[in-house]
Amino acid sequence: MMRLDQRAINGEASVVVISTQRCQITSMDDLDLCYMPATELASAIKQKTVSPVEVARAVLARIEALDPKLNAFATFTPELALEAARAAEKSVVAGERLGELHGIPVTIKDLTSTAGIPTQHGSKILAGHIPAADAVAVTRIKQAGGIVLGKTTTPEFGWKGVSQSPLTGITSNPWRLGYNAGASSAGAGVGAAAGYGPLHQGSDGAGSIRMPAHFCGVFGLKPTFGRIPNLPIPNNDQASHIGPMTRTVADAALFLKVMAGSDPIDHMSLTAPPPDYPRLLSADGATPKIAFSPDLGHARVDAEVSELVASAVGVFADLGCPVEEITPPFGPLGPELGRFFWTVHETNLAHYLEEWEDEMDPGLVACIKEGSGRSADEYLAMRARKLEYVGQIHQFMQDCDLLLTPAVSVAAFPADRLQPEHWPQHPWDWISWAEFSYPFNMSGNPAASVPCGFTEAGLPVGLQIVGKRTDELNVLRAAAAFESARPWHDKRPAL
Fold it and tell me: Residues with catalytic annotation?
């Protein structure tokens, strides 16, 4: 874990730098502050019952205590966070207008640019690289008053679904140390589960929000493509999405609202203003028509995962939603497309091989080499097939409001492996156990992973909820209904 300042953090939450004449501070357990939802923190800070400095100290102290074994941070910035918290506190005392995230701790993924803070992409190649400007999402988080704690870990250039990189090593699943926490938003998922504050920014190019949400037992939403601006625009044919990772659905709705909205520089960003997700989350809506596919017609799924997901689907039927089990026609067409485009788009990194191959993740090197040498004719032919495939997904979604599937085929496994030991082995193909996520990166549909239970070994499992394009609100509402029926945010790993 890189730190920008090695001075010790005073973790005593009772040390609160705030005017007691203007603000009543309620004594609160540090752990409660660390796990308090952002929606509650925002209200408590505005009502002056909790201090931003008190919150920051509690969360920073927890990170100091736990992260040596979890390794969720690539760069930890406690002094910058405390400085921002003190400024936030002064604004509260002065009675200034407060943003929607005022004084609330937030983490940023190490693939997302941060001015003045290293953005290293989990690679020795970019070790120590400091961008000149913040990403759009980071700017909006800061403008809303969010307190940035640092940068969370990712595999090298976000290439795989396993929480390990040559730069930062293994990021451990908080439910079992040494096990996969999912990726590429690994550190964000761990931070959400471990009580490193309520809000964690992730990104998703083939499941990288939903996979760590599944493995870590938290909520993760990949919004519609373009809902949150993403600059510089990744050269991967519109696959990458930025989104929230949280412990509650309401927190994700709040975080999404802050980050969403068009940007004039990102010509891929959606021009229509986003809905007011927090306000509309609990509003009455039509009962959704739901389709359920346990395997998309082709995917292998471990038995325990299948059983937990099927039980979760039953909750929606109990809530009065019409649920039909189906085999979508587009499903079996996905694997060949997924693997072709994953390898070809990783060749964006091929220019590093001559100098850096020996220092890079061997699986990433193998993936780059498999994708190299493809012709323009091959790419265009496969892209034509992809466009047809995406069209079939959107046609299918015309007949239902939501599609339910497993989020991932397996529970967590040792993070020094690309595949679980009982699965077929391959030098780079981790996608074999993640067949449910990449289709909706290609199509741009909003998709979430909600915690739906634990295996006998105590490892979390996620249910994926997919919505129509631009309809994050219906996904959030369905997730909130499930959360109410099967609460998960009070379940914490024994750390």
Answer: 109, 184, 208
